[in-house]
Amino acid sequence: MRLTVLGKSPAWSDAGGACSSYLVEQGPTAIVLDCGNGAFGKLRARIDYRDVDAVVISHLHGDHLLDLVPFSYALTLGPGAAERTSKPRLLAPRGAEAFFRRLSGTWGDEELIVGALALEEYEPSSAARLGDLEIRTHPVPHAGPTHAVELIATSGARIVFGSDGRYSEELVAAAAGAELLLAEATLPDPDPLPPDERVHMSASECGRLAREAKVARLVLTHISDELDLDRSLNDAREAFGGAVEIAGEGAVYEV
Q1: Full set of structural domains in the chain with CATH
Q2: HEC string for the chain
Q3: Could you tell me the pLDDT band of residue 162, with boundaries at 50, 70 and 90?
Q4: pLDDT confidence of 153, banded at 50, 70, 90?
Q5: What is the pTM of this model?
């Protein structure tokens, strides 16, 4: 299984960058995990968007889904659109259909996203087969319903995308024993709010998460180029004690 970083920015894009999005490939199967603003152009630089089998959305925040709009326009209006006989699957949390209709309905086209992709709303704890990949979702605490996404290769190797959210026992359980964990490191330091009111993590908390989950490798993501990235990397390494790096657009990870 190969994961390519299309976008790793937090809610505001890096200079020249894109928000949360990852291309995951296993054999002939290609899925896009999250599709944040700026991601569709990065995807097109990697593969033909018509070859994407499915898109999986971790939660309904703009920086994780806004490029479903250009993706949908390409599928609807791009070359060969009239000849297409099938649609890519779109796996998104409960309430996604109403959300997507409101989003594109603001400019009078409620059918844009739900018409271009075959929407399936998943339960908070769910499992699905997407070609050669198995996908499992795990609810984690954030701002609104949010899900860590577990990707399982045919070999049984696992990549876990923590999505957004604070350090939590739910996230530790979802990531337990993974070969690769991608965890958000939005904050330079832990949030001073009480633990149950936090919505994001720092790099040191990511390191603690990786240590507690006993993962093999940790990749920090959802992290701005405006932070002191050397400091974030050192904080995570000190807390984890294992292999850590910061996601970069175009970086490839294989398990």
Answers
A1: 2-254 (3.60.15.10)
A2: CEEEEEECECCCCCCCCCECEEEEEECCEEEEEEECCCHHHHHHCCCCHHHCCEEECCECCHHHCCCHHHHHHHHHHCCCHHHCCCCCEEEEECCHHHHHHHHHHCCCCCCHHHHHCEEEEECCCEEEEECCEEEEEEEECCCCCEEEEEEECCCCCEEEECCCCCCCHHHHHHHCCCCEEEEECCECCCCCCCHHHCCCCEHHHHHHHHHHHCCCEEEEECCCCCCCHHHHHHHHHHHHCCEEEECCCCCEEEC
A3: very high
A4: very high
A5: 0.97
